[in-house]
Amino acid sequence: MGLLRRIGLKGFASAARSLDMAPTVVTRATAELDAHHGARLLHRTTRSLALTDVGATYLEQALRVLADLRDADVQAGASSTQP
């Protein structure tokens, strides 16, 4: 759960609040993501939430992609001129 806590997620309810969504929407989206990949990304119980090995790898790669997109936006903005 260390990585989840570092990014501020302690459970589906807190994630839903931070996204201004109903917890059921977050639960359903997570189930759909699991089904899409054919693997569980999270170990979930009523008292805990932890990434599986597959989930940790997926999260790390997704965070890298998002960082690359932010870098691309910065580079594009820095090289643009006034229209």
Task: Explain what this protein looks like in three dimensions.
The protein has 83 residues and is mostly helical. The protein has 4 helices and 2 strands, in the order αααββα. The chain has helices spanning 2-6, 12-19, 23-37, 53-79, and strands at residues 42-44, 49-51. The protein has a two-stranded antiparallel sheet with strand order 1-2. A hairpin with a 4-residue loop joins strand 1 and strand 2 (49-51). Helix 2 crosses helix 3 (23-37). The termini are far apart.
Integer-rounded radius of gyration: 16 Å
Total of helices: 4
Structural class: mainly alpha
Average pLDDT reading: 84
How would you sum up the global shape?
A: elongated
Distance between the termini: 47 Å
Secondary-structure element order, N to C? HHHEEH
Sheet with the most strands, sense and barrel status: 2 strands, antiparallel
Provide the low-confidence segments as ranges: none
Provide the spatial order of strands within the biggest beta sheet. Answer: 1-2
Number of strands: 2
Strand fraction band? 5-15%
Main attributes of the structure:
single chain; 83 residues; mainly alpha; two-stranded antiparallel ribbon; 2 strands; 7% strand; elongated
Please render the helix and strand layout as text:
Elements: H1 2-6, H2 12-19, H3 23-37, E1 42-44, E2 49-51, H4 53-79
Antiparallel strand pairs: 1-2
What is the compact description of this entry?
It is built from 4 helices and 2 strands, in the order αααββα. The chain has helices spanning 2-6, 12-19, 23-37, 53-79; strands at residues 42-44, 49-51.
